[in-house]
Amino acid sequence: MKNILRIFKNDLRSIYKYIFVLIIVLALGTLPSLYAWINIYANWDPYSSTGNLEVALASRDPGIDLKNGTHVNSAEEVIADVKDDEQIRYRPLDDPEEAIEGVRSGRFYAAIIFEDGFSYDMHHFEEAVDQRQPRITYYTNIKKNPVASKITDQVADTLLSKINSEYLEAMLTEYFDDVQKAGSEVDLDQAAEDALEQLIGTRDALHDYSASISQIMATKSDVSKALKNAQKKLEQARKDGKSDVAKARKKLEEAEATIKEVAETIDGKSDKLKTAIADLKDALGDPARKAEALEEADRVLTLLQDLRGVLPKDPETASGKAAADALDVMIGQTKRIKTLLDNDPTSPEIISEANTLEELLGDDLIPSLKLMMSDINKALEITKLLLKSAGGTLNNIDPVLGSAGDTVVNLDASLGGLQSMLTSLEIKLDDIIQQVQDAADDDKASVLAKLLGIDGQQYSDLFTNFVEIEAEEFFAPVSYGAAMTPFYSIIALWVGGVMLVTIMNCTADRRKYPQITESEGFFGRYLIFFLIGQIQAAVVVAGDIFLLHCSPIHPWLMWLSAAVTSMVFVILIYALTLVFGDIGRAAVVVIMIIQIAGSSGTYPIEILPEIFDKIYRFFPFPYAINAMREAICGLYAYDYIIYLAKLMIFFLCAALLGIFVRKPFLGVKQFMQEKMKETEVM
Asked: Which of 213, 267, 334, 558 is the most exposed place for a label (fewest CB within 10 A)?
């Protein structure tokens, strides 16, 4: 350590002793920062000036005359709407060919041309859907500037999305308005009769679903009591005529959850039944497993009977009847298998019966159960529509549902509440059906129209704004330039290290220090390189913060990351130059070039060529850049410490290289230097 400090003190004395050397050292400490500052400033907020990029707009579309005599030109409307956009400088032109030639010549970065037929397609969606769509041609000049073309591409996509949204809105509005208009032109008497039949069918389906729920609850005494209580409250509610539609909607949500749980239960039992039948078939294949086969048959029979108990004895809907019939056949099939096992366990009919049982499960029972649950869900959807359109007339349902919701919280109670609602809706449908049947023929359609109103604009708004997106950013810097600060600052520190080994002598004079060891000579001269490198790091960070205002969240950690980075970069560059001489200097330049391209400083490493993804982790740039990003944008867990720790691995490797590899390569280094001098060129 004494000799190391001795070399360092002599180097300091040499610097302040000669004013010319001091000026060079000060220049070495400050010049690298210019690289970082200029590049950061140039990239500070480029997207705020995209309004300076010119994009031409032109149209070949003559427009169309609508049925009402109005002339419409959708292309001109779009151009007039966007020409004052501040994100891009749109330049409307009368001649499309001039716009295209302007892109080709470089006058414009891009051009958007509305082709002939654009207005026609915008107002004839039935033809556009069938064979065409509104036509737009986008021209771009990539040669002029590849980055600008990406910006104009994004602008074009935004414009097209806006046009498509407006087109869809116009199309849907016109469509639903046509539906409403068509509804006023059809045979209303016949439409009323058809709707009445649908209401009667819905009422009958509700009755069947209510019966199914009763069957589910039959074995639950506490639920039966709750149901009776609910029914009493329903009767009282009818007498009182109190209303609370909000509670009905809440109860409907409970019913939906209940139906979902019932569907999951049926699915679970169906899966168990499928497994049990498979196990039964497996056991039937071996006569020695008769006892096991009988046990599996009993399990299958129990599961079938449980599912059958869920359904009404005599279902009224087609899906319910199909499921019940399939279950009845499968129960009989299972009983026959048990009989054959008892009488003749080796009979080939047993396997045949088991195969039939499996086919009935997959082809009949499961599809029928799914269809039945689908019908129940449709009934709930109908219930929603009735609550929305006839909320004022459902006053007698809600108090009962509210009371049930206040006093019952388990699944069975939800089923009871659902049954009460279905019963009430059945009564409501009876009332509606009776009103329609009692109404005069001319009034039936008007009664139904009150329940089935259509607003085309509402539907089009729904479809064109179906999904809203809320963006939330994590670790956002103040600007694009601030986000690029780590990349350019780290490059500047590497450039600073290259400048040091280019101007300064890396070797301590052995004649002046004859007794020093390899390690003392290495670290003794390294300290002056380290000191100037720290000056470079401090100047770069100070300028980033106070001159460019990159606003790091942790400014001191930003300085620390730069200090550690400079320490690592300088010793790595110093060691390579010390060991390999001019070849080492060339190597550090090559390393810089590779890292600029493949360190993920600008583009994500995932989108770069595969070779960079394989080698970038073996270079120091990515860890230095990521450490400074943590300081600028915000810390996550222990990432900052991890990045600095990985940087220190390079420090250790460089130290080992400079101490142990220098001496063996000394002869090769001198030989190369002599040969280069002999050329009188290098």
From this structure: 267
